């Protein structure tokens, strides 16, 4: 099954500029939860101008 990490991210320079980003995760729901935190951290490191406000796992 395919799950997605759905993140709400905002620009550091303008917190009113927000959008949703998705990261696809293959496997069961538990895999999404276990791998979610490291994936969100990695996304944040790759996108230094953005702040992850929240994230959740959802079926893709």
| Beta-strand percent range | over 45%
Helix content range: 25-40%
**Domain count:** 1
Strand arrangement across the biggest beta sheet: 2-1-3
Instruction: Let me know the number of strands.
Output: 3
Major beta-sheet overview = 3 strands, antiparallel
Mean pLDDT value: 95
Protein topology:
Elements: E1 2-11, E2 18-26, H1 29-46, E3 50-59
Question: Which structural traits does this protein have?
Answer:
60 residues, alpha+beta, three-stranded antiparallel β-sheet, 1 helix
Explain what this protein looks like in three dimensions.
The protein contains 1 helix and 3 strands, in the order ββαβ. With about 60 residues, the protein is α+β, with helices and mostly antiparallel strands. It has one domain. Strands 2-1-3 form a 3-stranded antiparallel sheet, with helices on one face. Strand 1 and strand 2 form a beta hairpin. The protein is elongated. The mean pLDDT is about 95.
Concise overview:
The chain is an alpha+beta fold.
């Amino acid at each position: 099954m395919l799950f997605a990490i759905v993140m709400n991210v905002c620009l550091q320079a303008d917190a009113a500029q927000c959008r949703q980003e998705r990261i696809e995760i293959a496997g069961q729901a538990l895999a999404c939860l276990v791998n979610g935190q490291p994936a969100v951290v990695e996304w944040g490191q790759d996108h230094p101008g953005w702040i992850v406000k929240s994230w959740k796992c959802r079926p893709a």
